[in-house]
Design goal:
Length: about 160
């Protein structure tokens, strides 16, 4: 066998060993960048009653649909508390035992933090909550990518055990 054909054969063997990776990489790119079909929910009027007390909001996590008209009733049970929603120009301030009310349109999809905007004590910086507008697409994409990675690892182990990797 001539020496000139050895590098070609080695390259061909390496190509065959790793050829299965390219379809998985293509699928991963599709999962990451192709828009997912979203279920349509007609915008609704929502009333959210949020209690602020002792460095916590109740409820601490809220999910709404894009386009909803949201009215927030902030009730302070102990000291003066505020409600500031990241990503929106929306803020409320409630005195003890009082209710503050405000309305906004959920016109931005995603996950937004809300936090107390009035210094209310030592643990004030930890008084935060989460508003999710629309479905959590990052979570769905992460699960699918994880399943794809597990299947790629199983194929790789199978190739190693056969001696082709």
């Amino acid at each position: 066998m001539p020496m000139e054909s050895l590098p070609y054969k080695t390259a061909l063997i390496n190509w065959k060993r790793w050829a299965w990776v390219f379809p998985f990489a293509g699928l991963a790119l599709l999962i990451l960048f192709v828009p997912l079909p979203l279920p349509f929910h007609a915008p609704q009027d929502r009333l959210l009653r949020i209690e602020a007390s002792s460095f916590q909001f109740t409820p601490g996590e809220i999910q709404i649909n894009p386009g909803d008209r949201v009215t927030v009733e902030l009730v302070s049970t102990d000291v003066v508390h505020g409600f500031s929603l990241d990503g929106y120009d929306f803020e409320l301030k409630a005195d003890p035992g009082q209710t503050a009310t405000g309305t906004f349109i959920a016109d931005q999809a995603g996950v937004f933090r809300f936090r107390c905007s009035v210094a209310c004590g030592n643990l004030h910086p930890f008084m935060i909550g989460k508003l999710q507008v629309g479905p959590n697409l990052l979570f769905v994409r992460g699960i699918v990518l994880g399943l794809l990675a597990i299947s790629a690892a199983l194929i790789s182990l199978k190739n190693v055990s056969r001696g082709t990797a």
